[in-house]
Automatic annotation (TrEMBL):
The Solute-binding protein family 3/N-terminal domain, residue ranges: 35-114
Protein name per Swiss-Prot or TrEMBL: Cysteine ABC transporter, substrate-binding protein
Keywords: Signal
Signal peptide start and end residues: 1-19
Domain of life: Bacteria
Annotated organism of origin: Staphylococcus aureus
InterPro entries named among the record's database cross-references: Solute-binding_3/MltF_N
Length: 122
């Protein structure tokens, strides 16, 4: 069951990473295998720096686990919350890992991961 959940999460992240790119851009992303991740790095416990200055947190750990399973590299780009979606729209980020709330406007424009471990019924 955990394997199925992991595959579903990975699939959603990969879909989000390929979001609004053209076919040519999708092929370039596939070949590079590097996902640009937008995050604040200041919102514990989801995205923050530990006592050693290392970026960590729930959202960071999840996206790292998905990337490892899929053989992808991650490049974390820390930015302010105010510019998070602008960076995604401009193509500076492929995904956001920063505890983003879902609202109707965002749901129309972006793909969201709606399934987490705590929501799975066994």
């Amino acid at each position: 069951m955990k394997r199925l959940l992991f595959v579903m999460i990975a699939f959603v992240f990969i879909l989000a990473a390929c979001g609004n790119n053209s076919s040519k851009d999708k092929e370039a992303n596939k070949d590079s295998k590097t996902i640009n991740v937008g995050t604040e790095g200041t919102y514990a416990p989801f995205s923050f720096h530990d006592k050693d200055g290392k970026l960590t947190g729930y959202d960071i750990d999840v996206i790292k686990a998905v990337a490892k399973e899929e053989g992808l590299k991650l490049k974390f780009n820390e930015t302010s919350w105010d510019s998070m979606f602008a960076g995604l729209d401009a193509g500076r980020f492929d995904v956001i890992a920063n505890q983003v709330g879902i609202n109707p406007d965002r749901e129309k424009k972006y793909k969201f991961l709606s399934l987490t471990h705590s929501q799975v019924l066994f």
